Amino acid sequence: MGEAITVLLAEDHAVVREATAEIIDHQADMRVVGQVGTGVDAVRLARQLRPDVVVMDIAMPHLNGLEATRRIADALPECRVLVLTAREEEQYVINLLKAGATGYLPKTVDLSELMEAIRAVARGESVLPPAVASVVVRYLTGEERIEEDLSPLTDRELEVLELVATGFTNRQIAQQLDISVRTVEAHLTHVYDKLGVCSRTEAVVRAIQRQWIEPEERDSL
Fold first, then answer.
1. How far apart are CA 115 and CA 135, in angstroms?
2. What is the pTM assigned to this prediction?
3. Which domain holds residue 89?
């Protein structure tokens, strides 16, 4: 038997993460080398440990799983990312694959199926549920066009960011939306965490690049 498949688990629910890790460690051909509960830690530990496979929950705090997948894929092209998510929209799956995920499974998957999926992505195979596999094939062959990245931001967060892009101050945004300045600041903090950025300018640029807001709305920052 060859070397064991090394796995990094990224899941924000500790009980689920630890139970999954125990099952993986009981497999003769796998071992868990790390466990994390945030997207930021997933990127950091992936770079440090360089696992064969990252099992990524998409709903991660401090950096969503989609962006964490993109960063890991960019930094470690040899690392395979297997995403677990409750979202099953065809467009969303396409966006995961465009971000660099090797496979996708719904969170309702059986543990035995998850083990087989880990083995498959470690071999370099793509893992997709049958319900979306045909759509992915049509997209990759150019027969079907899927819209660009879905925003991880809420409607209110996008609304705040659009006003930032027009040059509004936090106080002006609060007046425009009839909310408190503190609420505006909280929304922006969530935006920074989800996008993995540190400033208003970075957030606006990222949103424009992903086509979540229109560049012509931006006058100044």
1. 24
2. 0.63
3. 5-140
User: In whole angstroms, what is the distance from residue 213 CA to residue 21 CA?
Assistant: 39
Same structural domain for residues 68 and 132? yes
Written as one string, the DSSP assignment of 151-174 is PSS-HHHHHHHHHHHTT--HHHHH
Whether 150 is in a domain gets the answer: no
Q: How far apart are CA 218 and CA 163, in angstroms?
A: 9
- Among 140, 163, 180, where does a domain finish? 140
Per cent of the chain over pLDDT 70 is 83
Strand partners, 105: 84
For 128, phi then psi, to 5°, come to -140, 140
pLDDT tens digits, one per residue of 20-64: 999 999 999 999 999 999 999 999 999 999 999 999 998 888 888
CA–CA dist 114, 9 (Å, integer): 12
pLDDT category at 131 given cuts 50, 70, 90 is: low
